[in-house]
Amino acid sequence: QVQLVESGGGLVEPGGSLRLSCAAPKYISDYYAIGWFRQAPGKAREGVSCITGFDGKTWYAKSVKDRFTIFSDSAENTVYLRMNGLRPEDPADYYCAADRDCTLQTPWGWGQGTQVTVSQ
Fold first, then answer.
1. Distance from C-alpha of 20 to C-alpha of 71, rounded to nearest angstrom
2. By three-state DSSP, how is residue 30 classified?
3. What confidence tier does 99 reach under pLDDT thresholds 50, 70, 90?
4. Cα angle: 78, vertex 79, 82; to 5 degrees
5. Which residue blocks in the chain are alpha helix, DSSP H?
6. How confident is the model at residue 1 (pLDDT cuts 50, 70, 90)?
7. Residue 38 dihedral angles phi and psi, to the nearest 5°
8. Each residue of 6-53: pLDDT tens digit?
9. Cα(110)–Cα(98) distance, rounded to whole angstroms?
10. How far apart (Å, rounded) are the C-alpha atoms in residues 108 and 66?
């Protein structure tokens, strides 16, 4: 069973930055899309961003566009999510998963997640 591995979460002040990492097997990072999702307590899981391994196209949720940047390092088989300008509404458990494309209809390979906290 394939499982992606997230890391990089932590505690930051409002306006701060974090970089999350998602490590995946090479065949996934090269040929599938990898999406970042988040789930805050009491809220539904939501897609945050996505990148396709096969052509590098990206997608962002409106709530994070212009603040978050997704990019991949093919040498490390890792997809990163750079989060700038973190807001009080951003704290959640962040997960990455693979999918056939960035419509993110059938994600799989969920990792354990990494927690992001924004607080003074």
1. 11
2. helix
3. very high
4. 130
5. 26-31
6. confident
7. -145, 155
8. 999 999 999 999 999 999 999 999 999 999 999 999 999 999 999 999
9. 8
10. 27
